[in-house]
Write a structure and sequence with these properties.
InterPro entries: SL1/TIF-IB_Component, TAF1A
Organism: Steatornis caripensis
Order of helices and strands: HHHHHHHHHHHHHHHHHHHHHHH
Largest sheet: none
Shape: extended
Number of strands: 0
Structural class: mainly alpha
Protein name: TAF1A polymerase
Helix content: over 70%
Pfam families: TAF1_subA
């Protein structure tokens, strides 16, 4: 019957699609391409299928197969994408954008720029308004390519400037690219979102032409506007800008404080800790200890010698003065149940000693103060250091033995 035929036809399409997906997962691109051909043919025979559904599937799957197929060429890919652009106006701009990305990945920058320019001139009734965000993305990426051209012209001028070479046409082309790039980049970063690359390029343009106030305003807006999602990089860019322009320590600390709240494991926490330790204010030194403890909570920091040196230096100062032992106690209370196994096991002591003597020294000092002279990590490292007749390890052992009462005060 007609109903049974339609049911079987639907099942065969679903089975074919599952074969395609399995082949892609196993990276069997030739097999996936064969099944894809059958799938497209079946859709052509299926008059009941809604037009908009399969077309996106064909676009997504077909693009993936062509990107990985060993016998695929740019000519075939371009031909396929051009066909996909005609399948549905709702996805026209998205397909154009993906086409531009593929061209860029294959080094065809001029072709990508032309593709984006054509997409920017596209109009289709109400769809133009509906796809306003996609259109802004098209314009923004074209702005990035204008920025790329600006960089090329700038480098030509800088290279030849030392030889007294002056080419007015190069300079004019450079300024033309700047104006085009600035307009499009400025527009996209007004929309709440994550626009790291666009912001960096726009700020670079502004700084080159000496518009530091505008650059600062852009970075402040990107970092502090509540409409934008929380983004560690926004505060990194602001901090780097402030540092480049010799801003006060107060401004730098303020920028890094928010970065610490969002991403306590960021690599700039070393800089943050160093600045805080140099402060005369007790509150900031206390924060410095909190910052470095928090960073070392993350596995990516376990072998960071600089981080352990920062913590060892501050812990040592507190142990000698016996002031602010409560700072260490507060930080240690929430970690004493898991840091010994995470950082200070005998296995880690052996591995660290064999791999990095400086790391094992800094960690042993911290372990000795936090866990006492009977700590497995401290005992192993100090024994190996003294056995190897390394002077600083003998001094380390004496220091920890002398200040063992500090451990007793911290742990109780």
């Amino acid at each position: 019957s007609s109903r049974e035929h339609k049911s079987n036809f639907k099942k065969s399409k679903e089975v074919c699609l599952s074969y395609i997906q399995d082949a892609m997962l196993q990276k069997q691109w030739k097999k996936a391409a064969e099944f894809m051909t059958f799938y497209v043919e079946s859709l052509e025979k299926d008059f009941s299928t809604e037009y908009m559904g399969p077309s996106e599937m064909i676009w997504r799957i077909g693009t993936e197969i062509l990107c990985h197929h060993p016998r695929s060429s740019m000519k075939e890919f371009n031909s396929f994408i051009e066909q996909m652009k005609t399948l549905g106006v709702k996805r026209y701009l998205k397909v154009c954008l993906e086409h531009a990305f593929h061209l860029l990945c294959n080094g065809q920058i001029d072709e990508a720029y032309q593709n984006l320019s054509l997409a920017e001139s596209w109009r289709f009734g109400e769809q133009t308004v509906i796809q306003d965000k996609e259109m802004k993305l098209i314009q923004a990426y074209r702005g990035l390519l204008d920025y790329y051209s600006w960089c090329k012209q700038k480098n030509i001028l800088l290279e030849h400037g030392q030889d007294g070479f002056e080419d007015l046409s190069v300079e004019q082309e450079m300024h033309r690219c700047f104006r085009k790039a600035a307009v499009n980049l400025k527009e996209i970063i007004k929309i709440p979102g994550v626009w790291d690359l666009f912001v960096k390029c726009y700020v670079d343009l502004l700084e080159f032409y000496g518009d530091h106030n505008e650059a600062r305003q852009v970075l402040n807006e990107y970092a502090y506007n509540s409409k934008f999602p929380a983004n560690p990089n926004a505060h990194v860019y602001l901090y780097q800008f402030l540092k480049r322009h010799g801003e006060s320590k107060k401004s730098l600390i303020s920028a890094l404080k928010i970065l610490h709240d969002i991403a306590p494991s960021h690599e700039l926490m070393i800089d943050f800790n160093t600045m805080l330790q140099k402060s005369k204010k007790r509150k900031k030194r206390r924060l410095g200890l909190e910052v470095i403890f928090a960073a070392l909570d993350y596995a990516g920091w376990k072998e960071n010698v600089k981080a352990w040196r920062c913590l060892a230096r501050q812990v040592k100062q507190i142990a000698i003065s016996e002031k602010h032992l409560d700072w260490i106690k507060q930080e240690w209370n929430s970690r004493k149940s898991w840091w010994p196994a995470f950082h200070f096991s005998r296995y880690l002591a052996k591995r660290d000693w064999q791999g990095n003597e400086s790391l094992s020294y800094e960690k042993a000092l911290v372990a000795g103060i936090l866990l006492g002279k009977d700590c497995k990590y401290f005992k192993y490292v100090s024994h190996q250091g003294c056995k190897a007749q390394v002077k600083r390890f003998r001094i380390l052992k004496k220091f920890v033995n002398k200040h063992n009462p500090v451990y007793l005060r911290i742990c109780h």
